[in-house]
Amino acid sequence: MSAVVRAITVLHEIETFLPLAEELHFTRTAERLLISPGRVSQTIKKLERRFGGALFGRSNRHVALTPVGRQLYAELLPAYQQVRRAIANASAAFQGLSGVLRVGFSSPWCGDLVMRAAEEVQARHPQCTVEIHRVTFAAAFEALRRNEIDVVVKELPTDGPDIIAGPVLFTERRALVVPASHRLAARETVSLEDLALLPLITPADASQVFLDAHYPRRTPGGRSVPQGPAAFGWEEMLSLIGAGEGGHSGRCEGGRLPCPAGRHVCPDRRRSARRLCADVAEGQ
């Protein structure tokens, strides 16, 4: 095997080892690398044979770094990042990529994704600057139209033919956020029929297209869904829920956010998920 082929092989193994060391989960690592879990396992085994010992401890329910694995990760990550920065700097110098990218997001749970993506862009293109803007519901689309931001991470559907939907970034199960005192708070799961059991709080400035998609007026069984007050942002929505004014159809991961006197109840896993995507104004 030539030196070049060996170097490429080792780099491939490193680029599999580092994500697995962070995720500690073969399936999530495979999804992150866009390969199969079996391929991840095979690559790690080759790397372990190269070093002569285990880098991960494995069981049916748990994956953990061994002491040697932790040491390798701690020493390897900074070096790998430095190599990537050097390659990105050279590439950007020839490509001439520079300027400011203005990114908006409307939901708090998208913030971490946007921050990590911004770091990745700036690592690959040091001459670029990423500005992150927090926007509310339909105001995100208006910001695109006024050229105040270039891209926004937001739930589908888009608001008009002049807005182009980009690729889906991730999917999540929906949840019903209810006051802690409501009878639904004692449930482990809910269904769409349960929307008829309390007023539904909606975003104040959302388009009718968005409201129809996420805040139905009737359940699949034909029961009427009571309409609650409108909120101008996620924080106001949580306050209204905590005050017992109604519930909100949100995302299960939103349960990580503080909700005064409220509780997130997720649906059965077989229910459809709310899709989130990057929306870009046409022509930009």
Overview of this structure, please?
The protein has helices spanning 3-23, 26-33, 37-51, 67-95, 111-124, 139-145, 208-214, 234-242; strands at 56-58, 63-65, 99-105, 128-134, 151-155, 163-179, 189-190, 200-203, 227-231, 248-251, 262-267, 273-281. The chain has 284 residues and is α/β, with parallel strands linked by helices. Strand 8 (200-203), helix 7 and strand 9 form a beta-alpha-beta unit. The longest helix has 29 residues, at 67-95. The protein is globular. The relative contact order is 0.12.
Q: How much β-strand is present in the residues?
A: 25-35%
Mean pLDDT: 79
Query: How is the main sheet built?
Result: 8 strands, mixed
Going by helix content, strand content and strand pairing, the class is: alpha/beta
Helix share bin: 25-40%
Tally of DSSP helical segments:
8
Alpha-carbon Rg, integer? 23 Å
Quick take:
The chain has 284 residues and is α/β, with parallel strands linked by helices. It has helices at residues 3-23, 26-33, 37-51, 67-95, 111-124, 139-145, 208-214, 234-242; strands at residues 56-58, 63-65, 99-105, 128-134, 151-155, 163-179, 189-190, 200-203, 227-231, 248-251, 262-267, 273-281.
Which helices and strands occur, and which strands form pairs?
Blueprint: H1 3-23, H2 26-33, H3 37-51, E1 56-58, E2 63-65, H4 67-95, E3 99-105, H5 111-124, E4 128-134, H6 139-145, E5 151-155, E6 163-179, E7 189-190, E8 200-203, H7 208-214, E9 227-231, H8 234-242, E10 248-251, E11 262-267, E12 273-281
Parallel strand pairs: 3-4, 3-5, 7-11, 8-9
Antiparallel strand pairs: 1-2, 5-12, 6-10, 6-11, 6-12
Helix pairs in contact: 1-2, 1-3, 1-4, 2-3
